[in-house]
């Protein structure tokens, strides 16, 4: 694509549509406008390299920018039963009908919300969403399924009104604002380059312009784990090696990575004693976010030669890079091998050892616990609800898999879910945020657990709890 004229036309003609995506993600008019203008400004630097329709590229930048903002502005936000009110809301946000769906969306984890907006508002395919977010199509399916399962639990959803035409700036007004940001960004880069030159002349180097991150800030205890290893390195020093001397063979390892080249797809993998455990894609907004993990068991660790008291080697590697295609062929690949790994990219690992519930340092109990709302009978449909106030055993006709589980608890505790006496899932809560816990078990997974009754045969769902001292509920949903 050429330059300024095409960019101006794109901002004028298509930015109103992109604003609606930004609004669905933020739920706030001012934040949505700021998010969109920031994404357009970042897209300008790569505009001349874009061939074909630029909208998929801009959409990906917008998603990455939103991810970055979620980390910076809403760090620590978790899905809760009651959301805080926005400061200084506009008159439109006072209308109840306006907020119902957005409030439900806001309770979802960040990645699940992104997937739903791209899937059902943008009508993108799973492959297109995977390209936009830099994740696998399988992850898109998982996020979609879990998000829909959570939304089904939210009472009173109504249609979400989007910003009215007279409620947002005209395209030419937004273009002027974006041009101003581009100019300011150029000035900032010139100033940064001058500072780097002056610093080098003075005999010292300026740190890379990445968002600073220190894995040492990761909490000592998190989600039932005692964090015993924290490691961090730049891509330029890969492979990076750390040492873990286990005191138990039960835990969890998490990795994260980030760089700031939005055209490059990179993945970092973690190895234990030289054997790969798993890998994760890197964010392209320079922000480290631990969004995935893998369970460590005695069997999985034993197969890698790990034993209690013996040092084990934890290694982070950067996989071969690939570059997003600016104009992918229909039905073809979205990326091709190749690209240069940036030395200043960041990768991090944390490893935790599981702590028994009665030994875990739980937070102080609040004076008041948030009230848990429940889906009513009409919203339940064929699902069944087990809760603290009612019987902990219910029956339902067997419809096969996948079986969706979703629940909430006011307090920390353990929930064991059984079908016909067979344990199929254990959910745990470690704080008082009323966070949703959900899972989807396929027919194959249920069969492996011994659950394989005949179709329409009655099955018994039993919930057993420990340490739960407040309200809780679990919804079990058969296939629709």
Structure overview:
The chain has 480 residues and is α+β, with helices and mostly antiparallel strands. The chain is built from eleven helices and 20 strands. Strand 1 (221-222) and strand 2 form a beta hairpin. Helix 1 crosses helix 3 and helix 1 crosses helix 8.
Characterize the largest beta sheet: strand count, sense, and whether it forms a barrel.
5 strands, antiparallel
How far apart, in Å, are the first and last alpha carbons? 46 Å
Spatial order of strands in the largest sheet: 1-2-12-4-8
Q: How many β-strands, per DSSP?
A: 20
- Content of β-strand: 15-25%
Radius of gyration: 24 Å
Low-pLDDT residue intervals, each spanning 5 or more residues: 71-99, 158-168, 189-211
Structural class call reads alpha+beta
Helix percentage range: 25-40%
Continuous helix count: 11
**Quick one: overall form?**
globular
